[in-house]
Molybdopterin molybdenumtransferase (Cohnella zeiphila), 348 residues
Amino acid sequence: MSASSSSGSGIKRIGDSILREIKVDEAIGMVLAHDLTQIVPGSFKGRLFRKGHRVAAEDIPKLKDIGKEHLYVMELAPGDLHEDDAALRLAAALLGDHLTMGEPHEGKVTLKASITGLASVAKPVVDGINAIGDIALATVMNDRVAREGESIAATRAIPLIVPEGKVAEAEWIAAEYRAREGRAPLSVRPLRKMRAGLLTTGTEVFTGRIADKFGPAVELKLRELGSELAEQRFAPDDRQTIVKEILYFLEQGYDMILVSGGMSVDPDDRTPGAIADAGCEIVSYGTPMLPGSMLLFGYLRGIPIFGLPGCVMHDPYTSFDVLLPRVLAGDTIRREEISAMGYGGLHR
Ligand SMILES: Nc1nc2c(c(=O)[nH]1)N[C@H]1C(S)=C(S)[C@@H](COP(=O)(O)OP(=O)(O)OC[C@H]3O[C@@H](n4cnc5c(N)ncnc54)[C@H](O)[C@@H]3O)O[C@H]1N2
Ligand code: MOO
């Protein structure tokens, strides 16, 4: 459906700007004031005509096919912004490290990660900007992994003409955040390349009764984030042996120690006790996330250590997949943060 003037006069005033409606049949030679979108469910959604396109006779049937009976001629007053310019200015105000800003498209500008890292999103800035009205900012959640090339945010003007004051207010919110925090409201944080030691516990695996599935799963999760499984060792469900092997990894100087299996409630589940015996400062045993509620996280002489429950080898996204990228980004994880991860923490 085409946007129609409420006045019936074919003229819509927005502040001092004017949108004048022209019948499509009389529009040959006119320049389009904004991108025009076609949607064919299941096959196409995108720009059929670009802003600035000069309407030709052969365009008329296509315009009618997408529901246009009228087109706007825009007379922009000083102090008003075209939707594309509003979206561009908003995006530029937010842009931080490792993000690229795309061209405006139908009044929208997308910010994409130029590396694989952690999306850093200042929620108060997002909320503040969206409270202004007429301009919209949609982002991914803070601390979510962003793959290279993935969109992490998009800005959009809601009306075709936006009072510049609204964009200026958004720019002020973003600038104030930059000044206070010393960083942009939106950025991607790089991940360190870490070398991890994995101790796989379980007498059934150690004795060869069953094949190990933890090694390949953890290796993949590390590799996908640019890190490395440097060494995997095996131990039976014996507390002393597990302690000894953890201390061996510590001596090797790995950046991270992972211990798999034996994390739950059975008498043979020795891993949490062994991690404690090794001298680990336990930040949290148990996380309010599923899968992965039985995960343990702590530090052993400053080295991050994870106790990984069985689900980590089985499920693609667990509490480990939430916490691992944080560790790779160099964050020190505190107990209060983990206890606050239950809201939105049901990942299945
Ligand atoms: N009554 C309760 N039952 C369970 C609880 C609970 O709180 N109360 N927690 C559940 C959760 S959550 C998880 S996760 C699982 C697994 O916990 P564990 O880490 O203790 O896993 P294991 O008991 O060591 O093994 C479970 C299962 O996986 C196989 N396994 C273990 N390691 C390997 C390996 N490296 N390669 C292949 N397969 C492996 C093991 O043989 C068992 O079949 O507990 C829930 N239950
Ligand atoms: O640690 Mo368990 O899923 O919560 O898999």
